[in-house]
Amino acid sequence: MTLRSATSRAALAGVFLAAACWAPAMAETAVPDDLTVMPAVSDDYRPATTPWGDPDFRGGWPINDIAELPVERPDRFGNRHWKTAEELAAEQGRVDQLEQAYDAEDEEGTIGLGHWIEYQAGSRRTSMLVEPASGKLPALTDEGVRAASFNRSSWVNGQTFDWVDDFDSWDRCWTRGFPASMLPFRYNNGIRIFQAPGYVVIQLEMLGTRIIPVSGAEQWPAAVTGMFGNSRGRWEDHNTLVVETTNMQPGASPLNVATRGVPPHNTLPTSAQATTVERFHMIGPDTITYELTYSDPVVWQAPFTLRMDWSRDDSYEFFEYACHEGNVQVRNYITADRTAREQEYARGRMFDPIDPDAGPPPAMDPASRGVGNNRN
User: Is the distance from CB of 95 to CB of 120 less than 8 angstroms?
Assistant: First the structure.
């Protein structure tokens, strides 16, 4: 379960294995002399082709090595896209300290936070954002601010909990959202790419698999939506897969709160006008440069573009992300919150008591077979 207080044995097993399967040293875009410049993506490399003639992107591409790379650029880096060599060396010192802590946990036969959150230095980038050049996300529109204020999540401090709709899609093991699912998290960052004639499949270690046609698929009707949307791919040049996605279902934050450098609370809205354009550039045998342009004019005042390098590691293994295993956290949150409010009322700090017999709204009561029954 992804609620902050919960654990999953299978998820933890995957994290523990990841500690033993560190990705190889990250192969990044060449760093320019001027650290404020972001070079264009190279198209020099010609990847091998599949038996049916498409560029061959198949393999494991875990993104643990960019898990600490923030979406937004920290202020201390000013207008630089790149860190200095000294800044990178300081990060490596932190990695060395954490690895010593991992070794101590292993010797003691304990698994602490060290194996939940894997940290790797190696990225010279200061943020994922390349547009706007400021390294900061665009502002929300008035409607974006209004819509975000109505969204609910376990990540909102002081929020009350009465039913499953008080939790976000990630709390409920549904989805991390899109494009959030393509961005690094603290753990379970495995990505695998499979290919077949006419299709590219992207398997995500945490909640989801994308099946992308690359042979002239039609756009869905506007009324048909999905959490990963309607993705349609095409091969461009000799080393680039372009994927355009529309028809995204509102209900999940497009940027997940557990990715570094994103707005808090996990309540960013998605409108029916949201679209993405992804570009997967293979710039070397073991490196894909991933670019994502996100646009939602209802929610954001301007589009934004992220770019990061993925490193190949075909030895990285997945364990099942059994998010619902032993899942009692939604019930526990609701029970604990109602109890706390009853206690506050008893102390005279609340105006209205909570009726212990008051169930969820009728449309979400399982006994009523209401429309909300399939949401948890």
Answer: yes
Compute the distance between CA of residue 210 and CA of residue 194 in angstroms, rounded to an integer.
10
Whole-model pTM: value is 0.81
Distance of CA 226 to the CA centre of its chain: 17
Q: Residue type for 101, please?
A: A
Sheet holding 275-284, edge to edge: 129-131, 304-311, 287-295, 275-284, 240-246, 230-236
Evaluate whether 213 touches 198 at the Cβ level (below 8 Å): yes
Instruction: Look at the alpha carbons of 176, 250, 242, 201 in this order and tell me if their dihedral is positive or negative.
Output: positive
Per DSSP, the three-state class of 279 is strand
Cα(200)–Cα(234) distance, integer angstroms: 10
Helix (H, G, I), strand (E, B) or coil at 282: strand
What does the radius of gyration of the chain's CA atoms come to, in whole angstroms? 22
Grouping H, G, I as helix, E, B as strand and the rest as coil, residue 333 is: helix
C-alpha–C-alpha distance, residues 36 and 62, integer Å? 27
Rounded CA gap, 54 and 38, in Å?
29
Tens-place pLDDT, residues 52-101: 999 999 999 999 888 889 999 999 999 999 999 888 888 777 777 777 77
Which CA distances in Å does 253 have to 230, 256, 323? 17, 6, 18
CA 84, CA 65: separation in Å to the nearest integer? Answer: 18
Q: Is 158 exposed, middle or buried (0-12, 13-18, 19+ CB in 10 A)?
A: exposed
Residue 18 contacts residue 272 (beta carbons within 8 Å): no
- Among 81, 184, 162, smallest CA distance to 334 is for 162
pLDDT at 25 over 60: no
| Tokens at 254, concatenated | 């497009």
Nearby residues of 162 by Cβ (< 8 Å), 6 or more positions away: 334, 337, 338, 360
Q: Report the length, in residues, of the chain.
A: 376
Would you call 362 exposed, middle or buried from its count of C-beta atoms within 10 A (0-12, 13-18, 19+)?
Answer: exposed
Helix/strand/coil percentages in the chain, nearest 5? 25, 20, 55
What are the beta bridge partners of residue 306?
129, 292
